[in-house]
Task: structure prediction
Amino acid sequence: MEEKKCIFCGIVTGDVHSHKVYEDQKFLAILDIFPATPGHVIVFPKKHYDSFFKIPDMDRIQLFETAKKVADAVLKGMDTDSFNMLVFEGKHSNKNIVHEPQIHIIPRYPQDGLNFNPPRNRYAEGQAEQVYRKIARYLKGV
Ligand SMILES: [Zn+2]
Result:
């Protein structure tokens, strides 16, 4: 169920130019054309999924293994020891291309100007317990 206008599907077929730093039968890693830092790479499945949750579990595992391999190459190639890894899911996540899952590997450098430090808020009295129950009930039946 490929979407006609999906730019990532176009990258897979070669209709859209990209710098493919890694490719195998199932996965592709390309340079992001709008890099947050030099060496910013996106790893994704060749098959089009519109959600992180729709890719088969074994493929998701292999995707993260591929991301590890690519991240290692990014660190060595870009001569740094730091990166941030990001996955976007859902309309509030600032993603603009629905071809999932995309794993962004963003190498970090001294004074690179990026700030991934989200605000450090605090829970109100009793709120953490409520939030804990909302999530944990799906994981351990609390
Ligand atoms: Zn696609």
